[in-house]
Specification:
mainly alpha; 2 domains; 0% strand; globular
Length: 230
């Protein structure tokens, strides 16, 4: 059923390729990381993405951060995807609109920006493919495949989604990612501190405990069904 859902989604986007969800996640990461640089240090960005996706995501984020000019230009490209055939079409559409002289040999101005962004995205995608055998997106992709709306919201919102989403909406997703109440509280508090927000109050901690207790069986069952490889 999950494969059928994915095929329907691919068809709706006109997507050709096998790495649909990886493309979806990293395309949005380009945009969220670009925005987050105005609020967080590069070190904090790497650390917080690693908290969500695991430490193997670090080299991918670090590459983005070491190419900030290209990152910001790539983040301006419209269209859901930035990689594979569909991404190439979005890149070309964006830059051909901005710089119709791209068919010439010009190497400055908009044409140079096109080459910088395209080269950056190509190298980034090569790095993503290198880490696929480490299941670097396994903390989130299974939930995307099952159609959980919060997983899409997390991908689109980036690291700020954890700290700035109302607690009542965020706690179960964070519990599903971390697997423990202690881990969920620690993650939310850490992200709130990084965002210069107040950590969980006594009342909020009690709310987390209550929600976790009331949904304990559901959370455990969902994690087992979604994250256990069949």
């Amino acid at each position: 059923m999950d494969n059928l859902k994915e095929e329907v989604l691919k068809e709706s986007y006109g997507y050709k390729g096998n790495l649909f969800w990886e493309n979806y996640i990293v395309s949005h990461m380009v945009r969220t990381v670009s925005k987050e640089l105005s609020e967080f240090s590069p070190k904090d960005i790497v650390e917080m993405y690693s908290d969500i996706y695991g430490e193997d995501i670090a080299p991918i984020i670090e590459y983005m951060l070491s190419n900030q000019e290209a990152l910001h230009e790539a983040a301006k490209i419209e269209g859901t995807f930035l990689f594979e055939e569909i991404g190439a079409k979005n890149i070309n559409k964006h830059f051909l609109t901005e710089a119709p002289e791209l068919t010439s040999a010009i190497v400055t101005g908009p044409a140079a920006t096109f080459r910088i962004a395209r080269g950056f995205l190509g190298n980034l995608w090569n790095r993503v493919r290198t880490f696929l055998n480490k299941n670097v997106f396994s903390a989130v992709i299974p939930f995307l495949q099952k159609g959980f709306a919060w997983a899409k919201a997390l991908v689109k919102g980036g690291i700020n989604w954890v700290s700035k989403t109302p607690l009542a909406q965020a706690i179960i997703p964070v519990l599903l990612i971390t697997g423990t109440v202690k881990g969920a509280k620690a993650l939310i508090n850490k992200f709130r501190k990084k965002a210069k927000m107040k950590t969980l109050s006594t009342e909020e901690e009690a709310s987390v405990d209550k929600i976790a207790a009331e949904n304990k069986d559901k959370i455990e069952k969902t994690r087992q069904e979604v994250l256990t490889k069949k």
